[in-house]
Design brief:
Helix content is 57%, strand content 6%. The protein is mainly alpha-helical. A three-stranded antiparallel beta sheet has the order 1-3-2.
Length: 206
């Protein structure tokens, strides 16, 4: 009896969630495979709990794949890798256009080996240059060159082009960011918002 009551409560809660989603998404439900294939079948297939955690993870993952595919197409045309673009843009955003390898790895959430290999490729192409740290003989700084800044700008402009690979997202970039922002911050993604935090606190990159 108690188990059946719990199941009834779960079904009622899921039905209420579905009704709320129907009111907020409207006609988009008719073409969304996550709605038709997951949410609308969750109860009838005997799945426990609610569908929203699974749907949220799938939605972010699928959007990520679509964005990466479009980005990689633009980057291939401009002879740049995805990690190369992220690294160049990150350097361009720093105060002096330079940073430690360790700082780049932390900000970009990349393994140190990946950062080093990416810097090697960018340096060979003349897009970045290595320099000794003025205050720490053990450290090396990576600095963006004028050519690297131009290449990063070329990519950024291409990503906004109405005829580009990301044209389907035209006018939605800010909305996408703001929709994901609460979840990112809740998960602890605050490094870029608090550049003084972390293991390099108190140290300067030049």
């Amino acid at each position: 009896m108690r188990t059946e009551a719990r199941h009834d409560t779960e079904r009622d809660a899921t039905a209420e969630d579905r009704a709320t989603a129907d009111r907020t998404t409207g006609a988009a439900d008719d073409v969304d495979p996550l709605v038709m294939g997951v949410r609308d079948r969750w109860d009838e297939q005997g799945l426990r709990g609610g569908p929203w955690p699974f749907m949220a993870i799938c939605a972010v993952g699928r959007l990520n794949q679509l964005l990466k595919k479009a980005l990689d197409t633009e980057l291939k045309r401009l002879d740049l890798t995805r990690t190369g673009y992220f690294l160049l843009t990150t350097l361009a955003l720093t105060t002096h256009g330079r940073a430690r390898l360790s700082t780049l790895g932390r900000i970009l959430m990349m393994h140190p080996t990946t950062v080093k290999l990416t810097v090697d490729q960018l340096e060979a192409a003349g897009l970045v240059a290595r320099a000794p740290h003025p205050h720490d003989r053990r450290a090396t700084l990576v600095a963006i060159t004028a050519a690297g800044r131009d290449r990063a700008n070329d990519v950024s402009l291409a990503l906004e082009s109405p005829g580009g690979e990301l044209a389907a997202f035209d006018g939605m970039h800010r909305e996408i960011f703001e929709a994901l922002q609460p979840a990112r911050l809740a998960a602890g993604d605050v490094e870029l918002l608090n550049p003084g935090a972390g293991r390099d606190r108190g140290r300067r990159d030049g």
